[in-house]
Write a structure and sequence with these properties.
mainly alpha; two-stranded antiparallel sheet; 4 helices; 2 strands
């Protein structure tokens, strides 16, 4: 029998969230099949802005853990199971409470409207 010495024991603490478990939380939030279908510009940065998570200078895979931790901490996602193991979550244990696709699209439309208003004000000042 082969024993893997690198295997870590189960952990019920959010601070021990694994990148694999974080990826599942993000996939469940956006209802995506793979992380390859998500982009930094259209998915990760807007989500980070809503959650007040620093996103600049981080790549897609580096953003997974901080965003997933913020989602669980802020109550947008709940994890069920007995016991909860944050190092090895399964997709059916993750329950999405907030609809982020709708929230992100509203946030983008409100930002584009405010930029158009700012542009018209600056044009008036130059005349």
């Amino acid at each position: 029998m082969f024993v893997d010495d690198d295997e870590e024991p189960p952990s019920p603490h959010l601070k021990d969230l694994s990148p694999r478990s974080a990826e599942l939380i993000i996939l469940k939030i956006f209802n995506a099949v793979s992380i390859h279908f998500l982009t930094i510009k259209h998915h990760m940065w807007p989500l980070g802005k809503i959650l007040n998570v620093k996103c600049r200078s981080l790549g897609k895979y580096q953003l997974l853990v901080p965003l997933a931790k913020a989602l669980v901490d802020n109550g947008h996602v709940s994890v069920s199971g007995d016991p909860i193991n944050f190092r090895n979550l399964e997709r059916n244990q993750i329950n999405v409470i907030s609809d982020f696709n709708n929230l992100i699209s509203k946030n983008k439309s409100s930002q584009s409207g405010s930029l158009a208003d700012d542009a018209s004000v600056s044009d008036d000042r130059q005349l």
